[in-house]
């Protein structure tokens, strides 16, 4: 019993430390995606690009090209980590070694890869912006509009993550269930929920897309970041008819709980009759 208690305590400590690291990394990621591109555009404290340089000259500048190569390598590192550890053979190998800490390790390495990307990212300031709002009064009002929209998108993203079983997503639920002998948390979910989770581990595609692209100024390095992450998110989603039917049923049940008993309605992939 003592060894089990020590083991359970060690697992819980590792999982809780991972959650703290993921939380800090998430806050840094919000700052990385939204703060520099919006706040500094308002204050002018940091130059995001140089519109006086022609594109023909900028694309031949060694500093610009070297920065893009570094940024592309950082994006490749992140996407490789995120995809390789989600690959079934690798997941099975990690499961055999780490057991219930497999999901914790995945989240930790994802946060670590993000930290490496954010800390070593090379802004491209020697090339023109693809667009830039600099004329009054929009030079003030449009960045403020971007700030409000980014704030709402991040609030929606974190709300969806909380609804999407946040403890299981970060690995703490797996440790809790293991300590109390309850097995794998996924085994307690319905087949429809397990199928949906297998196809949709990133339920924030639209909101993150807005954060990536809706900016007062779009620099060359931001174009690379937004384009790569948008393509990756699009490829990572593979919802099909059964997933949409499951989401439709769940939406109808949630609305029914909020509004009280209703007459049964039909629900198909084209929408829910609520």
UniProtKB/TrEMBL annotation:
Q: Which UniProt keywords apply?
A: Membrane, Transmembrane, Transmembrane helix
Tell me what topology the record assigns in the membrane.
Answer: Multi-pass membrane protein
As for subcellular location, the record says: Nucleus inner membrane
Membrane-spanning residues = 97-118, 138-164
- Give a GO cellular-component term: nuclear inner membrane
Q: Does the keyword Transmembrane apply?
A: yes
Q: Which family does it belong to?
A: Belongs to the nurim family.
Q: What is this protein called?
A: Nurim
